[in-house]
Amino acid sequence: xxxxxxxxxxxxxxxxxxxxxxxxxxxxxxxxxxxxxxxxxxxxxxxxxxxxxxxxxxxxxxxxxxxxxxxxxxxxxxxxxxxxxxxxxxxxxxxxxxxxxxxxxxxxxxxxxxxxxxxxxxxxxxxxxxxxxxxxxxxxxxxxxxxxxxxxxxxxxxxxxxxxxxxxxxxxxxxxxxxxxxxxxxxxxxxxxxxxxxxxxxxxxxxxxxxxxxxxxxxxxxxxxxxxxxxxxxxxxxxxxxxxxxxxxxxxxx
Length: 254
Prior knowledge:
It is a single chain. This protein is of the alpha+beta class. The protein is built from four helices and nine strands; from the N terminus they run ββαβαβααβββββ. The strands form three sheets. The protein has a five-stranded antiparallel beta sheet. A hairpin with a 5-residue loop joins strand 1 (12-17) and strand 2.
C-alpha cells in the first residue's frame, strides 16, 4: 500500500440453480479475515518467485501493470463503490511478458502467477520451470517457448473470462425476466450526457438510466428503479426511474 497498491474490495454474485429449476442469486463480500490472509499469502508467494526467477535469469511469465493515469483518494466519505468505479477507469490493463516489470496495482517491482496450477496453465508452466531449475540447474522452457505459452494462455484466459461474464449476465437476465414491472435498489455511479450510469445494487450490473423530465439525480444517490424490459439472449436490461418512493410497485424477491 505504501508503494501505491490499490485494493478493490468488490462484492461478487453467487448464482445457483435450485432443485425446482429457479435461479437463486445472492451477493457476498470478499473481505473476510481468512480471504484477506489467503490473498496476501498468494501475492507474497508469487512476488517471491518473480524475484527468484529474475535474479537467476530463469525465463518466466511475468505480469505487470503500468501506473494508473490518476489515483483516487480512498480516505474520504464518498461511497467506496463510487470510488472503486472511478479508480477502475484510470487503471491500465494488466499485461504479461518475459521481461520483469513493475506491477503498480500490487505495488511490486516484479510479479508472476504460480499459485493456481490446477486451473491456470501458465501457472503450471511456472511450476515446471522452477522445479526443473531447482533439480537440474536448467530451466524447462526457453524464453521463446515461454513467449509461445504466453500467446496461447492469455487468449485462453480472455475467452474463459468472457464466457464467465456472459454466463453471469445471462443468469441475471433470466432471473430478472420474471420481475418485469418490479422495483429494485440502484446506485448512481456517473452522469454521462443524457443518461446516468447506475448499478443494480443486488445484482452488481451496470446499466444506463436515461434522464427523464423533472428527474435530477446526483452521483452516489441511492434510488429505486423499475425493470422495464429484459432480453435474455442479448443480455439486455432496460430500466426506468421509480419517481415516487411510495408508489405501489412490488419489490423483487431476493
